[in-house]
């Protein structure tokens, strides 16, 4: 069966909710305006429906890769969000630590240092 925008959107919505949680997705959807609704649709279909929904990686593996990429690129807000999502993906604090060690080697110590601070604060917040 050919994949359509509607099937990618439905799969993306399901995956996005599974990874980020209903509260986050409801908040993002509730804050959408006519200006950013096309962007929300794009990430739901593209990131969540076309990439995160693929079978080749587990959610845990995708979570680890995503954390490393966000850390390497310095996307701090998204990094914290994806660290919080590990509660749903099965990635452990040890997985996060190992990903950030890779960031230090391949993307630089300053990027990893910043990400480690964010990870520590986010994990501590999650433990409360």
Automatic annotation (TrEMBL):
Statement: the UniProt record of this protein carries the keyword Magnesium: no
EC number: 4.1.1.44
GO molecular function: 4-carboxymuconolactone decarboxylase activity; peroxiredoxin activity
Domain Carboxymuconolactone decarboxylase-like span(s) in chain numbering: 39-121
A Pfam family hit: CMD
Keywords: Lyase
Record carries keyword Aminoacyl-tRNA synthetase: no
Matching PANTHER family: 4-CARBOXYMUCONOLACTONE DECARBOXYLASE FAMILY PROTEIN (PTHR33570), CARBOXYMUCONOLACTONE DECARBOXYLASE-LIKE DOMAIN-CONTAINING PROTEIN (PTHR33570:SF2)
Name of protein: 4-carboxymuconolactone decarboxylase
Organism, scientific name: Hwanghaeella grinnelliae
């Amino acid at each position: 069966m050919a994949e359509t925008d509607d099937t990618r959107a439905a799969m993306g919505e399901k995956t996005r909710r599974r990874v980020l949680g209903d509260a986050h997705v409801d908040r993002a959807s509730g804050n959408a305006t006519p200006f950013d609704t096309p962007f929300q649709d794009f990430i739901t279909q593209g990131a969540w429906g076309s990439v995160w929904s693929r079978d080749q990686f587990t959610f845990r593996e995708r979570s680890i890769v995503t954390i490393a990429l966000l850390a390497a690129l310095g996307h701090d807000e998204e990094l914290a969000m994806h660290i919080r999502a590990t509660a749903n993906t099965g990635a452990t604090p040890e997985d996060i630590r190992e990903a950030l060690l890779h960031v230090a080697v391949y993307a630089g110590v300053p990027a990893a240092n910043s990400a480690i601070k964010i990870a520590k604060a986010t994990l501590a917040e999650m433990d409360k």
